[in-house]
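By way of example, what follows is a protein record of this kind.
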Amino acid sequence: VESILSLCDENNISLIVSNPCFEIWVLFHYLKRSQLNTIKAFPNCNSVEIAIKEFDDHFSKTRPVTKRTFNGLQKAVWFAKKLDIDVNSAIPVNPCSRMYKLVEELQSDS
């Protein structure tokens, strides 16, 4: 991980990291804001997928994102920013996703 971080830094590349996995970003699209204080660390990606399936029983990593998921984009940004408690660390705490940085960058260019 350290070598990847160094390589990104040397080449002025922003690394977008999700912890424990990318699927946490998907889960944030489904959660209610009132659930912020109940979110706990996930031991692995499989546990995140199980949590997603509570909202979308057809969820699959290989299936395209649904309109329902896309509609939760701003909520996912909100969750990710609230849970990113150490913005200066290269790897966010579990659970967190820095995908919000990419979304905000893309939205600022539009």
Summary: The first strand starts at residue 18 and ends at 19. The chain has a mean pLDDT of 92. Helices lie at 2-10, 23-28, 45-53, 67-71, 73-83, 99-108.
